[in-house]
Every structure is written in structure tokens, then in C-alpha cells.
Design goal:
heterodimer, A: alpha+beta, Uridine Diphospho-n-acetylenolpyruvylglucosamine Reductase, domain 2, Enolase-like, domain 1, five-stranded antiparallel beta sheet, four-stranded antiparallel beta sheet, 12 strands, 30% helix, 20% strand, globular, B: alpha+beta, Ubiquitin-like (UB roll), DNA polymerase, domain 1, 2 domains, five-stranded mixed beta sheet, 6 helices
């Protein structure tokens, strides 16, 4: 690890002031990704601003009937929080599908959004990578790209966002609250992460002087008909090849509203409003789900090693929607996929 | 030559140490004061500064679980934890589990179930298992397996590790029913 300075922020304003004053500084909370990136010499901040002492560890109800999650709530506390487990089980399930309990005990809610891709070329400082070193090229496009994106790629980057939690937050249409030197703003989850385009080094639309302070969930939690299915190379403690968050609002045999978000397939949690619209008003049948999956995957594009993800996603979407419709969500401990 | 000295100066600047910091940790019930650089991980602080080498360095990247310790009662990876960020915390390592001459029930169960072969992952496995029991979310063998997935055992002692944890889990449940 390269040397760095260390400072503790006393409040949010102090933290934002400190980060604005030093372009080489980074916030640290759980540190589960940042410390690793520093060990790999992928990240080399001049200064770490420790925000773990800030009062952002509450889960509160909002005046709109939703829930506000403080940015420093650990992932494990969030997954097991009674309100989240009861009202937003899709979120709880997605969190428990990710990482290991030790990492979930350490990792913060805000930090989960800001974790960086696990593309092996991004981590390998001996290879070109536009995300790590803009303009150096992408090693994955013609390289070993089995883990890489099938949606929203560019000629500069085909990396995927690694989070499970964010896939559920996208499906639930969460909002991200951020505070910067010019004040606070609320960002729709769909607008938070970016596609790589020609600036793959920038993962999100959070400004460099801003800090995530909370995540807000709307009142609607889809607690009756949801499922999170994560398909990976081993049963636990591995990143997704493809993951699917499905949430349905079913009224007397007809889907009123459907949410579908995919992980492991793009630079951000992938949602397709057209595919969701195809489900609205349709019966919750295999045929409906197949149609939505086909529509969603029409624009998918593989790079050789990851071509299999397209068919895997197609079948996964149908399976996850079926689980959601039946009210039998995927268990995150019994790994049989029913 | 001039170029070399310029490089050396650059390297010195880059690697010049910001001030070391003083950190208080309660480790296994003993107050310890450490003067360490900010980039010292909790794992290195335990092993190199405090000579507590029971906690193992496996991958050093949060992928194997050998470095698992309990910080304020929660299991974490000490290799990804900066010691300066845990000023004032209570840390329990494998050395702190036994009470005098009596092994912790989890240590005893690991021995009785032959839950290790080479033993390198064992301190992390045991600290993780103690954390798992305290969390109280595992009830079945499937749930133990899932919630212990952050600890890798290259010898493949998994069935016996699960058996050891099951025994302690059911033992502590029985003790709980006894109105403790």
C-alpha cells in the first residue's frame, strides 16, 4: 500500500469540506473494496477521510411511507433489519446473496454503491485498462471476458458493476441522497450509475465533492411477489455471472406492475422499461415471462467468452419471475433453484 | 547520475511517512496502545506489533477468511481493516477465546469433530463460527454453510466444521432453554 494521510471527519459538512479541499482524498467507511484496491495499487489516495463516526447509521421511516437508510448502516444490519426484512425482502435477499458475512458486517450501504468493478484487467496493473488508466485501451474486449457485460458496453470498456444490493435498489426505484459543498440533492437510482461510454473511469454521477448520506426507498416494497436469483460459479461468496431481481404487483390474476433488474450484465444494474411494460396487464404465465425476457435480451451482445450469459439471463429471468409470481422467492441458503 | 538522485528524491517524497498515530485497542481484554502508520492493517498490527500470530494472513485480500477476528463482537476480516479506524475498539482473536485453562466450546467442538487438517484456516474458522453463533441467524446446516462461506478451507474439512458448529449451536440453544 502507498503511504497516505488519515483524518477523521467530525460531521457531514466537515467531510465534504475536506474532500473538496483535496482532489487526491477519498472517503473510507467499510473499506472492504478501497483497502483492497490500495493494496493492489489500483487506488492510491493521498488521504483517507474516515467517515465512520458520522451519525448516518439509522433506518427511519420517511413521511411518504418509505424508509430512509443511513449511508453507514452495515450491509448485514440492513439485511436483517425487521423493517427491511418485512417490507423490502427483495433488498434483504439481494444483500444476503452478496459477499460473505464478514464483508457484510464491514461494508456500508453507501460504499456498496461506490464499489468498483472486479474486472480482472482493472485489477491487473500490468495490463491496459481504460477504467484504471484512461486512454490505455481495454484488455477485456479481446481478452478473457467471461465475467463481462452484455448490455450498454462501449469500445472503451465492457466491465460490470459487481453489486447485488444495487440490483434490488434499482428494481425498487430507490433514491440516493448526496451532500456536497453546494447542498443536498436526491438522485434517482437509475441515474446514479453510468454506462462506460468514453469515460469508463467515472462509475457514477456522484460529484467528487459529494458524499452519499442516505438511500430512500419508496413505500411500495413488493413484499408478496419478489425473488432474487443469483447465478454464479460457486454456491456462495462469488460474483454473479447473471443475477435477476424480480418484483410483481399481481391483482386477481393480472400483473399490475412489474420490475425487473439484472446484475452481472452491465456497467450498472440493468433495467428495461419496455420489457417491464410488456408484463403490465398480462397474466403471470410462462409465456408472458418468456416474452418479457426475449424483449429484454434483444439488445444483448456477447464478446465471445460471455456469450452464454444471454441464454443464461433469458432462462434466469423466466425462472425468477415464476418464483416471484408463485410467492416462492429463491432462498439464499438452500441453493436449489425451484 | 543526476537522474538517479532525482528518482531517489521522488521515491523519498512518495514514501515519506506521514506521522504515525497512537491507537488504543482492547485486545483479548487487555488495553494496548500502539503507535502505527495509518496504512497498518489490523491483521499486521496484531501479528507484527502485538505478537499475536494466531490470526493468520492467508490471501490478504478478503477472499479467504483466515484473518477473521471479532471487533466489538462482530466478525470481520482484519486484513481489510485499518487499525487506526478501530481506535477504542474491543478485539477478540483466537488467543482470547479460552478462559484460563478451559477451551472455548467452539475450540473444543473443532477438536472433537476433527474439524481441521493443516489448521491454517482454523483460527479464522473458529472466530467466524463464534461470530455466527452470536449473530443468531443460522438454524440449519444449510444456513451454517451459507453464513460460513467467507472462510475457505483448502483441506476441505467443511463437513466436520459444520458438525462442530451445529453441536455448539444446539448446545447453546439448549442452555438458553434452561432459562439462562
Amino acid at each position: 500500500m502507498n503511504n497516505f494521510d488519515y483524518a477523521r471527519a467530525s460531521d457531514v459538512a466537515d467531510a465534504v469540506r475536506m474532500i473538496a479541499a483535496d482532489p487526491g482524498a477519498k472517503f473510507i467507511a467499510g473499506g472492504t473494496n478501497l483497502v483492497d484496491l490500495m493494496k493492489e495499487n489500483v487506488a492510491h489516495p493521498s488521504r483517507l477521510i474516515d467517515i465512520t463516526h458520522l451519525p448516518l447509521k439509522q433506518v427511519d421511516e420517511t413521511q411518504y411511507g418509505g424508509v430512509r437508510i443511513g449511508a453507514l448502516v452495515p450491509n448485514s444490519d440492513l439485511a436483517y433489519h425487521p423493517q427491511i426484512a418485512a417490507r423490502y425482502p427483495l433488498l434483504a435477499s439481494a444483500i444476503l446473496a452478496g459477499a460473505s458475512q464478514q464483508l457484510r458486517n464491514m461494508a456500508s450501504t453507501g460504499g456498496n454503491l461506490l464499489q468498483r468493478t472486479r474486472c480482472s484487467y482493472f485489477y491487473d496493473t500490468t495490463t491496459p485498462c481504460n477504467k484504471r488508466e484512461p486512454g490505455s485501451g481495454c484488455s477485456a474486449i479481446d481478452g478473457f471476458n467471461r465475467m463481462h457485460a452484455i448490455f450498454g458496453t462501449s469500445e472503451h470498456c465492457i466491465a460490470v458493476h459487481p453489486s447485488d444490493m444495487c440490483v434490488a435498489l434499482a428494481a425498487l426505484e430507490a433514491r440516493v441522497l448526496a451532500t456536497g459543498t453546494t447542498g443536498e440533492r436526491s438522485i434517482a437510482f437509475a441515474d446514479f450509475h453510468r454506462l462506460p461510454g468514453d469515460t469508463p473511469q467515472i462509475d457514477s454521477n456522484l460529484r467528487t465533492d459529494e458524499m452519499i448520506t442516505a438511500i430512500e426507498l419508496p413505500a411500495k416494497g413488493f413484499a408478496d411477489n419478489y425473488s432474487y436469483l443469483k447465478i454464479r460459479d460457486r454456491l456462495s461468496y462469488a460474483f454473479a455471472l447473471v443475477s435477476i431481481a424480480a418484483a410483481l404487483d399481481i391483482d386477481r390474476g393480472t400483473i399490475r406492475e412489474a420490475r425487473l433488474a439484472l446484475g452481472g450484465v452491465a456497467h450498472k444494474p440493468w433495467r428495461d422499461r419496455n420489457a417491464e411494460a410488456l408484463l403490465a396487464g398480462a397474466p403471470p404465465t410462462r409465456e408472458s415471462f418468456q416474452r418479457a425476457a426475449d424483449a429484454l435480451l434483444r439488445d444483448a451482445h456477447g464478446f465471445g467468452h460471455n456469450d452464454f450469459k444471454i441464454e443464461l439471463a433469458r432462462r434466469g429471468i423466466v425462472r425468477t419471475l415464476t418464483q416471484a409470481a408463485r410467492g416462492t422467492p429463491q432462498s439464499q441458503s438452500d441453493k436449489r433453484v425451484a | 547520475m543526476a537522474q538517479r538522485s532525482a528518482l531517489a528524491r521522488k521515491a523519498r517524497e512518495r514514501f515519506s511517512s506521514p506521522a504515525k498515530m497512537t491507537v488504543s485497542l482492547n485486545v483479548n481484554g487487555v488495553e494496548r496502545k500502539l503507535t502505527i502508520a495509518p496504512w497498518t492493517t489490523l491483521l499486521d498490527a496484531l501479528r507484527l506489533n502485538l505478537d499475536l500470530t494466531g490470526t493468520k494472513k492467508g490471501c490478504d485480500h478478503g477472499q479467504c477468511g483466515a484473518c477473521t477476528v471479532l471487533v466489538d463482537g462482530r466478525r470481520v476480516y482484519s486484513c481489510l481493516t485499518l487499525a487506526v479506524m478501530k481506535d477504542g475498539a474491543q478485539v477478540t482473536t483466537i488467543e482470547g477465546l479460552a478462559q484460563d485453562d478451559a477451551l472455548h466450546p467452539m475450540q473444543q467442538a473443532f477438536i472433537e469433530h476433527d474439524a481441521f487438517q493443516c489448521g491454517y484456516c482454523t483460527p479464522g474458522q473458529i472466530c467466524s463460527a463464534v461470530g455466527l453463533i452470536a449473530e443468531g441467524h443460522a438454524r440449519t446446516a444449510d444456513e451454517i454453510r451459507e453464513l460460513m462461506s467467507g472462510n475457505i478451507c483448502r483441506c476441505g474439512a467443511y463437513p466436520n466444521i459444520v458438525a462442530a458448529i451445529e453441536e455448539v449451536m444446539h448446545g447453546s440453544a439448549a442452555a438458553g432453554e434452561g432459562g439462562r
